[in-house]
Amino acid sequence: MNPQQAKDIYDAQGYVHIEKALRGDELKRIQTAFYKAEENSTLKDLLNQDDCFVNLVDHPAWLPIARAIVGDDVQLRYLRGGVIKPQSDSGSGWHCDLSGLRGIYLPDSIIMTKLFVYIDEVPEDGACIAFVPGSHRYELGHPLPDIESHEAMPHHVKMVVQAGDAVLMNGYTWHARFHNRSDQPRKVIESSYIHAWMKTQFEFAALSPHVQEQILSSHNRRQLFGVPEPGQTDWQRRLENSAPHQPVEVGI
Ligand SMILES: O=C(O)CCC(=O)C(=O)O
Questions:
Q1: Which atom of ligand 1 is nearest to the CA of 129?
Q2: Is 113 exposed, middle or buried (0-12, 13-18, 19+ CB in 10 A)?
Q3: What pTM was estimated for this model as a whole?
Q4: What are phi and psi of 195, to 5 degrees?
Q5: Which of 35, 63, 79, 87 could form a disulfide with 191 if both were Cys (CB 3.0 to 4.6 A apart)?
Q6: Cβ 57 vs Cβ 191: under 8 Å
Q7: Full 3-state SS string of 128-149
C-alpha cells in the first residue's frame, strides 16, 4: 500500500489500517521504551522520554500518508501513550471528535487526523477502536443513534490489530473504544496531525534541550513541532519538497 492508496482508503472509509508499520528491532526498541515510560508514569510526556518517540512523528510508515491527507502544511498536535486496563469497563461510547466544531464543512474538510500506534496486539475482545465506515461524510449534525451498547452500532468495523500496526482516523469519523473484556492491557501511542496554522496541545519550551536540538536541526521537524519560522507566517509553512506557498491575488 503506497501513501496514495492509503489516502484513497482513508478518503473512502474515514480511516485506514496500516499493518506492520513498525517491526523487528525498531518495534522492540519502542516497546521497551514504552514499558519503561509506563513504569515511570511518564506516558503523557513520551517525547521527553526517548528519541524513538520523537522519531515517530516523521516516521516513513505514516508521515507520507498523513501528509497526503492533511497537506504539506501538516504539523503535530500532541503525542502521548496510554494503557487501558484488562477486564475493565473502559469503553468510550460512540462519538465524533469534531462534532462541536463550527464554521467548517466537516464532511469535506480535513481538520485533524488521529494516529494510533499499537505497542501490543489488541484481540477481538480487547479495547479495540471501532469505526462506522463512511461516517466522515455524514451531514453536519447527523444524529448518533440511541443505542445501549457499543456492539449495537449498525455497520461498525472493529480494529483487531497486531503489535506495530497503526491506524489513521479522520477526526470527523464516528468511532468508539470498546470495553476491554480481555486479560490483556491495551497499550497505544496516540497522536494527532493538524495544519501548521492551528494550535498545538504541547509546548515546545517544555521539551528537553536534547529534544529541542533534534527538532531545530531540520526544516520539516521545525514545522511538525510548531517552531516558528522567521519570515514566514503559519499559513505559508510547507514541508520540504512541496510546491512553494503562492499567495493568490483576489479581488480588485
Ligand atoms: O482509545 C481509543 O481507542 C479511542 C479513543 C477515542 O475515542 C478518541 O481518541 O477520541
A1: 3
A2: buried
A3: 0.95
A4: -90, 155
A5: 79
A6: yes
A7: CEEECCCHHHCCCCCCCCCCCC
Percentage of residues in the chain having pLDDT higher than 90: 94
Q: Is 67 left (phi over 0), alpha (psi -120 to 50) or beta?
A: alpha
For 86, phi then psi, to 5°, come to: -65, 155
Residue written as grid cell 512541496: 242
pLDDT digits (tens, 9 = 90+) for 237-250: 999 988 776 766 77
Which domains, and CATH codes, for the chain? Answer: 3-236 (2.60.120.620)
What's the gap between Cα 176 and its chain centre?
15
SS3 (DSSP) at 82: strand
pLDDT digits 0-9 by tens, 125-182: 999 999 999 999 999 999 999 999 999 999 999 999 999 999 999 999 999 999 999 9
C-alpha cell at 223: 514545522
Ligand 1 center from residue 116 Cα (angstroms): 9
CA of 179 to the centre of ligand 1 (A): 12
**Is residue 119 scored above 70 in pLDDT?**
yes
